[in-house]
Amino acid sequence: MLTYFVTAYFKTTIDRFVTWLPTDVLAVSVAWVILIFAQLASGATAYDWRLYALSFANAFLVAAAAGQMHQKALSPPGVSATMKEDASNEP
Question: Which pLDDT score, from 0 to 100, does residue 67 have?
Fold first, then answer.
């Protein structure tokens, strides 16, 4: 969830300076940093290469979950396209 919020809040700011960076690459990078900090906070040693390798692999899973959260926020389950149009046409 933290990856979703950090990516969502900082995406427009980062797009001003780094226009070529896709959102999914940004989400993986944010997830990787968050996972590394979480492992270091729980007592992992910073000199172990496995910390960085496993955090990098898990970052793809976390970023994919954050992307699904974004999709669910834009189009919640159980809401059809006609229901969205009807809601937007109401005064």
Answer: 85
Nearest Cα to 27, choosing from 62, 2, 63?
A: 63
pTM for the full predicted model: 0.77
Please provide the average confidence, as pLDDT, over all residues in the chain. Answer: 87
Any idea how long the chain is?
91
Share of the chain above pLDDT 70, in %: 87
DSSP the chain: -HHHHHHHHHHHHHHHH-TT--HHHHHHHHHHHHHHHHHHHTT--TT-HHHHHHHHHHHHHHHHHHHHHHHHHHS-TT--HHHHHHHHH--
